[in-house]
Write a structure and sequence with these properties.
Layout lengths: L6 H28 L4 H10 L17 H14 L1 H21 L2 H12 L5 E4 L15 E5 L2 E12 L6 E7 L8 E6 L6 E6 L10 E12 L3 E2 L5 H37 L1 E2 L2 E2 L4 H29 L5 H26 L10 H9 L8 H15 L8
Parallel strand pairs: 1-4
Antiparallel strand pairs: 2-3, 3-7, 4-5, 5-8, 6-7, 9-10
Helix pairs in contact: 1-3, 3-4, 3-6, 4-5, 4-6, 6-7, 6-8, 6-9, 7-8, 8-9, 8-10
The structure holds coenzyme a persulfide (COS).
The site of coenzyme a persulfide has 22 residues, from helix 6 and helix 10.
């Protein structure tokens, strides 16, 4: 086993790092204030190949693995978590699901332009009364000739307003998981509109919206996979998505850590640098240890996925640990900055707010623990073989 990145992986990391520090960093605080969607930056990311990283070259992507993608995503999150979450949902769940389950026509129509960054994908699973329990969804898709008629509301949809295509998960029949199907929805469809836009604590430049469906007629050709595949598509998409959120969490924590080291070296109290205090040194050591542990869990999850194995346990472990870690590390970063850390003069308060959602979205950390325990108890740590 090697912990050494290949030359190519280092190049990808460097490219994403340069883009992130040169293009995203200076404007992230302003975007946090104005909530402005980073449309221009996403265009630039499309040109760099960051929006089709794992899509095969046949469909205009880079044909890379989850590991390379994770490295790049962490670098983007280092400077702007809002941009990173858009990148994560787009690449991990949307591109991944369309490539795996889409027809050739759907790949031509959606995957190719998505891989080139011409438009961004969204994923609509949660509802006002169905978050942790997606089987409790009430959004329905009723067959009517060669169309499905969609009714219901989706909630907390990342890029709900600014997406070019949304993977909608809806109920086609009352039977448990086999009654759930997936559809590709575009904003031009009659009976589909964007509802309220959330005013959030962090990741403010990424829009999080309700999606409203009122007798929205969707051609049957827009079904992703077969009728009844929707729960499987959503769950396998979330496995990939959780590696993305873990990588994003790592990026925020790395930024908070670097700011903390820089600040604590400069800050003088009692006549010398605060790093002369053992209490500060221990905080820095603990932050560094937690970051390193999260990184290794993420690399392991990405590697498991890239080997084509069931990665549910590893993805949930990485997401759960890395997001808890990011919440803790960003909190410690504020503590290290003292009163200054609580002001907007320093970026750590933004990192703290941006990190807070990572333990909640794409499955709360309580759900991640359920996924880990259920899989281990049913199938052992490796999990059962999946299609
Ligand atoms: N990949 C593929 N299939 C999966 C899967 C995965 N990761 N996880 C479960 N499945 C399949 C199972 O194999 C099972 O299929 P069979 O019935 O054919 O065996 C089916 O889905 C049901 O699985 P399970 O019984 O584990 O489902 P539960 O309803 O008990 O729910 C949890 C499992 C709670 C883990 C799931 O509902 C979940 O992840 N909830 C959180 C959802 C979430 O992340 N919401 C946030 C919104 S998205 S931003």
């Amino acid at each position: 086993m090697s912990f050494q990145l290949t030359k190519e992986q280092k190049m990808i990391q460097k490219m994403a790092r340069e883009f992130s520090r040169k293009v995203l960093a200076d404007t992230a605080a302003e975007r946090d204030k104005t909530h402005e969607y980073p449309a221009e930056n996403l265009k630039h990311m499309g040109e760099l190949g960051l929006l089709g990283m794992m899509v095969s070259e046949k469909y205009g992507g880079e044909g890379m693995g989850t590991l390379e993608y994770s490295l790049a995503l962490s670098e983007v999150a280092y400077s702007c978590a809002s941009t990173a979450v858009i990148m994560s949902v787009h690449n991990s769940i949307c591109n991944g699901s369309i490539e795996k389950f889409g027809t050739e026509e759907q790949k031509e129509e959606f995957l190719k332009p998505m891989a080139e960054g011409k438009f961004i994908g969204a994923f609509a699973l949660s509802e006002p009364e169905a978050g942790s329990d997606p089987q409790g969804m009430t959004c329905t898709a009723e067959k009517d000739g060669d169309h499905y008629v969609i009714n219901g509301t989706k909630r907390f949809i990342t890029t709900g307003k600014n997406s070019g295509v949304t993977i909608l998960i809806a109920r086609t029949s009352p039977e448990g998981t086999s009654g759930i199907s997936a559809f590709l929805i575009t904003h031009d469809m009659e009976g589909f509109e964007v509802g309220r836009i959330e005013d959030k604590m962090g990741q403010c430049a990424s829009d999080t919206t309700d999606l409203l469906f009122d007798n929205c007629r969707v051609p049957a050709s827009r079904m992703l996979g077969k009728e009844g595949d929707g729960f499987y598509i959503a769950m396998s998409g979330l496995d990939a998505g959780r590696i993305g959120i873990a990588s994003l969490s790592l990026g925020i924590a790395n930024a908070a850590f670097d700011e903390s080291v820089k600040y604590s070296k400069q800050r003088k109290q009692f006549g010398s640098s605060i790093t002369d205090n053992q209490g500060i040194r221990w905080m820095i050591a603990d932050m560094a240890m937690e970051i390193e542990a999260a990184k290794l869990l993420i690399l392991n999850a990405a590697n498991t996925k890239d080997r084509g194995e069931n990665c549910s346990v590893q993805a949930s472990m990485a997401k759960c640990y890395a997001s808890d870690m990011a919440q803790n590390v960003t909190g410690q970063a504020i503590q290290l900055h003292g009163g200054y850390g609580y002001t907007k003069e320093y970026p750590v308060e933004r990192f703290y707010r941006d990190a807070r959602i990572t333990t909640i979205y794409e499955g709360t950390n309580q759900i991640q623990r359920i996924v880990i325990a259920n899989n281990i108890l049913k199938n052992g740590k490796k999990g059962k073989k999946r299609k």
